[in-house]
């Protein structure tokens, strides 16, 4: 539904909002060695401002996944890039999804494969908060975080207790979460167990028998144990097992009766009545089926030792594995991605003004993929088809140094530098040698200055880099899959970024205005070779994006708060050329919250500005071979409304009712289908510029013991 942004502002303030009034259970404060050192400033990781999404914020959004929790937060966009499989990319400060690094408790656990499809399966059960750091160099141990980092911080147990959250709603929506914490009597051992299941059914707003939003089913189980061996030694172990399953394309129970039937029936010829993608799908179900199953396991171990009051050392070891088994409209693709990571660091107070951090880390990622269908292209004698596996070996060994200087309480300067040896080798037989073998120096600087008790300035500058590792970063197996794939990458992407933020805070009003500039050389993008085969290559020239935002929050009364966020993203032509899906250029976010007498009411209104799709290379037709059926290149502005009401029934139980996308605005239902034919009559699914999932009304009950 469309509306003027000014009218939206009045509408949002007139609506209610939620805060959090559930009564708190008494908590026994138990601090382990790691917490004590963090609170004393001895374990500083971040060298720039970090924005925090709390557990209450996650609950307010009814977020079952990290993607849902962070979407539309300041500077963050979760972009839906396929109407069949619903694959999403997390963009920070306008940069692409592959430029975002996901950490869990400060450790880069996600592989390339899990970073693409896995984030929809990263549950929020057992999560204490999510930290968003924007800009290159957002983490000392994640040099590839060109856009920024998403750090998922799991609960640190302080008491024996459990939380159960059960909810269900329209369109097959289900979310069942459990987390439990335990602390031994002596306080030396603490444990966390978390589990979650969530599900969304397919949605077909235009009724043509092909979904715009897929079936999505996830489950995960995780556990964490922390133990103080001595007063100066702490060890921590975390494990996770999860699965994400996506089925998109033909509607189950309509166009096809089962997933197995869809996978078994395809001939490479998707057809619609009258060759019109707006009408009924008439082809075999497999020719529009996308099915992706991703299994993920993580194992992380940490040891922290304190050498007196001035020095501590930390060791982190991590192993993760993601297995992807997928089917893209007749094309199979399987991948096994293993990552090992090790980090050793020392923190030392040189004096009252200087905290020095020095460390070394090593990352090794081996990914092996295979497509039996596309392997046949290598020997079929057709110059118009080809296949180069995107299997790779990637290693990074780095040395880093950071000095946090606090000459006076109002000024903090954090200067850091990384020296890295980076190798990326595509191991396909047609790709001899090592494609990327470079030594990089990446400096970062962050300055915080408190003008007075209310005004604070932050300045950040940094360099970053990233090795493009898979054509899945720019495409996920659908575009021209019948012609195969190729890889033509021989250099690191190199970024330069700078940002400035000015914040104001008093008892009633909080505000932050910021501007960020990012530039990337050797930006990876999907292109075609001389025979039209899709190829992961790199663009000439420098891609740039400038983003600016203003966020205001105001305490209207003891019970009411209101907020507004304004954002803009401006891309140069080179950056626009790299996008498969048009990104957000303008966004307005309004919130209104009420908390009182056990009631919580929250309303969020999000407005997205119109875009010229021609700037991003959009061209398509609804009817094959009919030039008069050309699709619009003017994406309209739109808004969505989310609301949630909850009531604390007693100290244990809280009931809630909510709705996402209140007015059921979707691209397919209110504008046009994301399906299209290109100028050559080839069918595709990525003409996306609006919401693909409609209204979902849900209800649930939360219990805390």
Task: Describe what you observe in this structure.
This protein is mainly β. 8% of the residues lie in helices and 50% in strands. It has one domain (5-704): Beta Barrel (Maltoporin, Chain A). The chain contains nine helices and 36 strands. The chain has a 22-stranded antiparallel barrel. A hairpin with a 3-residue loop joins strand 12 and strand 13 (311-328). Residues 1-30 and 41-47 have low confidence and may be disordered.
What's the SSE blueprint?
Layout: H1 5-14, H2 33-39, E1 50-54, H3 55-61, H4 66-70, E2 76-80, E3 88-92, E4 100-104, H5 112-117, E5 127-134, E6 148-154, E7 161-169, E8 174-183, E9 189-200, E10 215-230, E11 233-248, H6 259-264, E12 290-307, E13 311-328, E14 331-349, E15 354-370, H7 372-375, E16 386-387, E17 392-408, E18 411-426, E19 436-450, E20 455-466, E21 484-487, E22 493-505, E23 509-521, E24 524-528, E25 534-538, E26 542-555, E27 560-571, H8 573-578, E28 586-596, E29 599-608, E30 611-612, E31 634-635, E32 638-648, E33 653-660, H9 667-670, E34 676-677, E35 683-684, E36 696-704
Parallel strand pairs: 4-6, 16-21, 21-25
Antiparallel strand pairs: 1-5, 2-3, 5-6, 7-8, 7-36, 8-9, 9-10, 10-11, 11-12, 12-13, 13-14, 14-15, 15-17, 17-18, 18-19, 19-20, 20-22, 22-23, 23-26, 24-25, 26-27, 27-28, 28-29, 29-32, 30-31, 32-33, 33-36, 34-35
């Amino acid at each position: 539904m469309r509306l003027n942004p000014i009218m939206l502002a009045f509408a949002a303030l007139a609506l209610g909002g939620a805060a959090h009034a559930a009564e708190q259970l008494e908590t026994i404060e138990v601090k382990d060695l790691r917490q004590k050192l963090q609170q004393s400033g001895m374990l500083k990781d971040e060298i720039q401002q970090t924005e925090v999404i709390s557990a209450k914020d996650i609950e307010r959004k009814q977020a079952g996944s990290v993607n849902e929790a962070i979407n539309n937060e300041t500077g963050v966009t979760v972009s839906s890039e396929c109407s069949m499989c619903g694959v999403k990319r997390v963009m920070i400060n306008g940069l692409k999804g592959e430029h975002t690094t996901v950490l869990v408790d400060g450790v880069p656990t996600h592989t390339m494969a899990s970073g693409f499809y896995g984030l929809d399966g990263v549950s929020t059960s057992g999560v204490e908060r999510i930290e968003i750091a924007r800009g290159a160099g957002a983490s000392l141990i994640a040099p590839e975080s060109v856009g920024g980092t998403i750090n998922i911080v799991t609960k640190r147990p302080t008491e024996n207790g459990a939380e159960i959250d059960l909810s269900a709603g329209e369109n097959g929506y289900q979310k069942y979460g459990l987390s439990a914490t335990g602390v031994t009597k002596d306080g030396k051992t603490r444990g966390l167990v978390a589990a979650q299941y969530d599900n969304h059914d397919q949605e077909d707003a235009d009724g043509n028998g092909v979904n715009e939003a897929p079936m999505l089913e996830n489950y995960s189980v995780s556990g964490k144990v922390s133990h103080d061996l001595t007063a100066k030694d702490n060890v921590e172990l975390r494990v996770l097992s999860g699965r994400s399953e996506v089925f998109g394309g033909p509607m189950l129970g309509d166009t096809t009766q089962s997933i197995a039937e869809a996978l078994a029936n395809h001939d490479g010829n998707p057809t619609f009545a009258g060759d019109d993608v707006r009408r009924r799908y008439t082809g075999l179900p497999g020719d529009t089926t996308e099915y992706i199953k991703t299994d993920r396991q993580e194992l992380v171990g940490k040891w922290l030792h304190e050498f007196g009051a001035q020095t501590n050392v930390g060791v982190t070891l991590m192993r993760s594995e993601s297995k992807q088994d997928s089917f893209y409209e007749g094309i199979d693709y399987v991948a096994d991605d293993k990552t090992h990571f090790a980090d050793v660091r020392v923190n030392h107070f040189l004096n009252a003004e200087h905290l020095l951090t020095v460390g070394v880390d090593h990352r090794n990622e081996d990914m092996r993929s295979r497509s039996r269908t596309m392997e046949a292209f290598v020997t079929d004698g057709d110059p118009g088809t080809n296949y180069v596996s995107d299997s790779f070996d990637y290693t990074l060994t780095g040395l880093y140094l950071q000095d946090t200087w606090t000459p006076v309480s109002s000024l903090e300067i954090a200067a850091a530098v990384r020296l890295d040896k980076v190798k990326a080798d595509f191991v396909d037989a047609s790709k001899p040698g090592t494609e990327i073998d470079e030594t990089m120096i990446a400096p970062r600087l962050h300055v915080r200055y408190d003008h007075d008790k209310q005004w604070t300035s932050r300045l950040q500058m940094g360099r970053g880099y990233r090795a493009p590792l898979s054509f899945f970063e720019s495409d996920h197996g659908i575009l021209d899959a019948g012609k195969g794939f190729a890889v033509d990458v021989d250099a690191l992407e190199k970024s330069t970024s700078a940002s400035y933020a000015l914040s104001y805070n008093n008892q009633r009003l909080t505000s932050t205005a910021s501007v960020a500039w990012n530039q990337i050389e050797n930006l990876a993008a999907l292109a075609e070779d001389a025979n039209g085969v899709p190829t992961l290559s790199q663009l000439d020239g420098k891609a740039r994006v400038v983003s600016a935002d203003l966020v205001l929050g105001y305490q209207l009364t003891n019970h009411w708060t209101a907020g507004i966020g304004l954002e803009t993203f401006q891309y140069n032509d080179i950056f626009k050329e790299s996008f498969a899906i048009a990104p957000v250029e303008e966004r307005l976010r309004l919130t209104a919250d009420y908390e009182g007498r056990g009631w919580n009411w929250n309303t969020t209104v999000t407005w997205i500005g119109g875009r010229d799709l021609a700037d991003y290379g959009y061209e398509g037709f609804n009817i094959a071979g009919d030039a008069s059926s050309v699709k619009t290149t003017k994406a309209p502005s739109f808004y969505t409304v989310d609301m949630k009401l909850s009531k604390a029934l007693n100290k244990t139980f809280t009931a809630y009712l909510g709705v996402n996308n209140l007015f059921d605005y979707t691209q397919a239902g209110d504008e046009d289908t994301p399906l299209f034919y290109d100028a050559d009559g080839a069918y595709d699914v990525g003409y996306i510029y609006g919401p693909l999932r409609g209204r979902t009304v849900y209800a649930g009950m939360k219990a805390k013991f």
